[in-house]
Specification:
709 residues, alpha/beta, 2-enoyl-CoA Hydratase, Chain A, domain 1, Rossmann fold, N-(1-d-carboxylethyl)-l-norvaline Dehydrogenase, domain 2, 4 domains, 5-stranded parallel sheet, 10% strand, globular, EC 4.2.1.17
């Protein structure tokens, strides 16, 4: 056309073909004397989701991104980016290479490369600080957070925000700037505005990034690259950016984080043995939901539902609990609304003592105390009260969902929805598919989870499901290590060095030691036949560690009682301090049982705790309780504080090498023949026998696929 040329990338991401298309079209436009300005926009109303992550695993082909962006910036005709929906990663870097940027009001912008173990290596770490200054650039690049168009406008990242058509607004802007000098619009020409206390700003950021993701390389590299923008001319800064990227690009951490990106999306694509799948099963619409029980879990679940726009009827049995639940839920909704500058949607939730109020809801989530008899009575009552087609969901952390379904008049409409505390914060939702849960029920629970902002993973109905079934064994190893000579702080430190946000004993104190105590009692591991003075270290045919029970008997229940594996300033205190009393308690215990303490290395702590998780993961795959190793990994990453840059227990086992994992488990099992879970699983042995095939092929080595999903 006569005055402007539209260049349309072909897809969401900057694949080799898209880069080729842009490079050639820009060159043509710059040469064509009829063209006065260029507008760059995306297809289907989406500007760009960044580089094609799948290409990172292959040999690079097509025109590279960096020279492509430089050519645009160096051009003698104004180029305007029309940002609709998103400009992320390489997409925002491309926009920063343009001379002007117009964004739609609903667009999101960001440099999320750090979440993939990388940095914005198409000049982003050098152009952004020159535009926004150091603190804002550090924030965006080291966190990878997405920002709104309005925030981008405030920071100067975009020149204009429109509620209307962004492409039309960009064309208008492009035509209005024809003939104006372009040099001031080239960000690589700008000097970086420096804060007064440059060193202080970087020191603070390094402390923050190390706290947020212990042991992660990318956030530190991001900060270093931004520092180069503060201290070096653009071209040398770019070299620094490239060197840092080279180190990250080939690191195991980048591979793990990119694996997580795809595994998270793969988890949503569930399938059942009867052929029902995510793409052939229609979820029910959910407009109203009931929540039964307003303890910690019920409160968080109610908040999630309301925030997702679902009307809630919250039920408690007694006035006192109802009142405190009402106050807590309202408080959470009000604080959230205040933070977001909106009105709290308090009108969307009603509180009642009457189950009858649930008669019209589309779905109920029961969140009462973890007790089968109690849950059964609730489900039987729900059967009587609710509409015949209402879904009945249980928030259980390990009970048999099918047993609960059996007391209802509608087993196909019963499903487990296992939330993690605090339920309005934690991202994981295990959806437990009972043998009789219908495809429509599973689809509704999975879709509802997504609507609540959760990563929903479909799992089978076995004790503890996936997450807690594995957790139990991880915790067992930690307890055994205490018996053998370790201290709680030594175990925690090793696990935190590995990357866990919190060590297992700190987590146990936080959750409350009485939770496990109750579970062990219910499992018949603790009872009147246990000698209180000399409790047995062998129960139900295997090694058993009575240490946590002994602590509970002393009233050491964790943070809430001010004492657990650690000491706290007061009941409810947060600061964990090593307790000399625990050290003496462990010494006495070992003496009583004739255990001579030995030196335990960090390597042993990590290997025993982490390999036992993967070993059980293999058993879960063999039992058909999870569809794929990716699902198990996402349960651990999103529900159990597993360090994302290590991909998940199954990915980690593959990275370490399955043969090594097998050999180390054999070694520890030889040392501890009474711990059956250290015995390598059949699937692990078979995979090693098949020369450790890639994860996608693991399922082919399960002798008979016995999916319970
Ligand atoms: C020694 C070697 C040295 C090498 C040195 C190398 C130098 C190289 C220089 C190159 C510099 C590159 C710098 C730039 C890097 C990047 O840009 S990295 C990517 C940054 N972008 C992102 O992280 C965005 C990721 N995507 C998203 O956040 C979301 O997908 C979305 C874009 C916001 C869309 O969300 P939604 O609508 O909810 O859809 P999804 O379900 O999430 O996605 C739909 C499908 O698209 C796939 N996909 C999305 N983004 C990408 C991507 N960037 N690459 C590949 N594929 C992507 C996603 O997987 C979905 O597909 P399925 O999984 O098949 O469903």
């Amino acid at each position: 056309c006569s005055d402007e040329l539209f260049i349309r990338p072909l897809s969401l991401v900057l694949s080799a073909a898209v880069r080729k298309g842009i490079t050639e079209a820009v060159a043509r436009a710059f040469k064509d004397t009829r063209v006065k300005a260029v507008v760059l926009c995306g297809e289907n109303g989406k500007f760009c989701g960044g580089a094609d992550i799948r290409e990172f695993a292959k040999a690079m082909s097509g025109p590279p991104l960096v020279p492509m962006i430089h050519a645009i910036e160096a051009g003698e005709k104004p180029v305007v980016a029309a940002i609709e929906e998103m400009a992320l990663g390489g997409g925002l870097e491309l926009a920063l290479g343009c001379h002007y940027r117009v964004a739609h009001a609903k667009a999101r912008l960001g440099l999320p490369e750090v979440t993939l173990g990388l940095l914005p290596a198409a000049g982003g770490t050098q152009r952004l600080p020159r535009l926004t200054g150091i603190p804002a650039a550090l924030d965006l690049i080291t966190t990878g957070r997405h920002i709104s168009a309005q925030e981008a406008l405030k920071l100067g990242i975009v020149d204009r925000v429109t509620e209307g058509n962004a492409v039309e607004a960009a064309v208008e802007l492009a035509l209005s700037v024809v003939g104006r000098p372009l040099a001031p619009r080239r960000l690589s020409n700008h000097a970086t505005p420096l804060p007064a206390d440059l060193d202080g700003v970087f020191e603070e950021v390094l402390v923050q990034v190390k706290r947020r993701a212990r042991g992660a390389m990318a956030p530190v590299a991001c900060a270093k690259a931004v520092r180069a923008a503060a201290e070096l001319p653009y071209s040398r800064g770019l070299e620094c950016e490239r060197e840092l990227m080279n180190t990250l690009f080939t690191s195991g951490q980048a591979r793990a984080l990119q694996y997580c990106f795809f595994a998270q999306r793969a988890a949503g694509k569930w399938s059942l043995p009867n052929g029902a799948r995510w793409d052939n099963s229609r979820p029910r619409a959910v407009h109203t939901a009931g929540v039964i029980g307003l303890g910690t879990m019920g409160r968080g679940i109610a908040v999630c539902l309301v925030k997702a726009g679902i009307s809630v009827v919250a039920v408690e049995t007694e006035e006192k609990q109802l009142d405190s639940g009402r106050r807590a839920v309202r408080g959470m909704l009000e604080r959230d609304a205040k933070r977001r500058g909106v009105t709290a949607p308090l009108h969307m939730i009603t509180f009642t003592l009457s189950m009858q109020q649930l008669r019209d809801v589309d779905l109920v989530i029961e969140a009462v105390f973890e007790d089968m008899a109690l849950k059964k009575s609730v489900f039987a009552e729900l059967s009587r009260v609710c509409r015949p087609n209402a879904l009945l969901c249980t928030n259980t952390s390990g009970l048999d969902v099918d047993e609960l379904a059996s007391v209802t008049d509608r087993p196909p409409l019963v499903v487990g929805m296992h939330f993690f505390a605090p339920a309005h914060v934690m991202k994981l939702l295990e959806v437990i598919c009972g043998p009789r849960s219908s495809p429509e029920t599973v689809a509704t629970a999975m879709t509802l989870g997504k609507r609540l902002g959760k990563v929903s993973v479909a799992v089978g109905n076995c004790p503890g499901f996936v997450g807690n079934r594995m957790l139990k064994l991880y915790l067992d190893q930690a307890h055994f290590l205490l018996e053998e000579g370790a201290s709680p702080e030594q175990v925690d430190q090793a696990l935190e060095e590995f990357g866990f946000a919190l060590g297992i004993f700190k987590v146990a104190d936080l959750s409350g030691l009485d939770i496990g105590w109750r579970v062990r009692k219910a499992a018949g591991l603790i009872g009147p036949d246990v000698d209180p003075k000399f409790p047995s270290r062998h129960r139900q045919g295997r090694r058993y560690c009575p240490l946590p029970d002994l602590l509970c008997e002393q009233g050491r229940l964790g943070q809430k009682s001010g004492r657990g594996w650690y000491l706290y300033d007061s009941a409810g205190g947060k600061e964990a301090r090593p307790d000399p009393a625990i050290s003496s308690f462990l010494q006495e215990y070992r003496l009583r049982y004739g255990i001579s303490a030995r030196r335990i290395t960090e390597q042993e702590v990590v290997e025993r705790c982490v390999f036992v998780l993967a070993n059980e993961g293999f058993r879960i795959l063999e039992d058909g309780m999870a569809a794929a190793p990716e699902d198990i990994d996402m349960v651990y990453v999103f529900g159990y504080g597993w360090p994302r840059h290590r991909g998940g227990p199954m990915f980690h086992a593959a990275q370490v090498g399955l043969a090594t994992v097998l050999q180390r488990l054999e070694f520890y099992h030889r040392q501890n023949p009474d711990i059956p879970h250290l015995q390598p699983s059949t699937l692990l042995r078979r995979l090693v026998g098949a020369r450790s095939p890639p994860m996608q092929q693991w399922k082919q080595h399960i002798r008979s696929i016995n999916s319970q999903l």
